[in-house]
Specification:
Layout lengths: L1 H20 L1 H10 L5 H23 L1
Pfam families: DUF2065 (PF09838)
Organism: Mariprofundus micogutta
Protein name: DUF2065 domain-containing protein
Length: about 60
């Protein structure tokens, strides 16, 4: 369970760093988001899930 909390904490650190270091780029990206098809967003999310899962599996084995 400690690993889960550590992973969530790291996620927040990385996410916060992106917003803190590149605020204008994040605003621009969010403005362009409605132009992207829901299917493309879903595929990007699923790809991130698979890559993240494989990375964790590789590191843990």
């Amino acid at each position: 369970m400690d690993d889960l909390w550590a992973a969530l904490g790291l996620l927040l650190v990385l996410e916060g760093a992106i917003y803190a270091l590149f605020p204008q780029q994040m605003i621009n990206m969010m403005r362009k988001l409605p132009e992207i098809s829901p299917r493309a967003i879903r595929m990007a999310g699923l790809s991130a899930i698979v890559i993240g899962w494989l990375l964790v599996k590789f590191i843990r084995s």
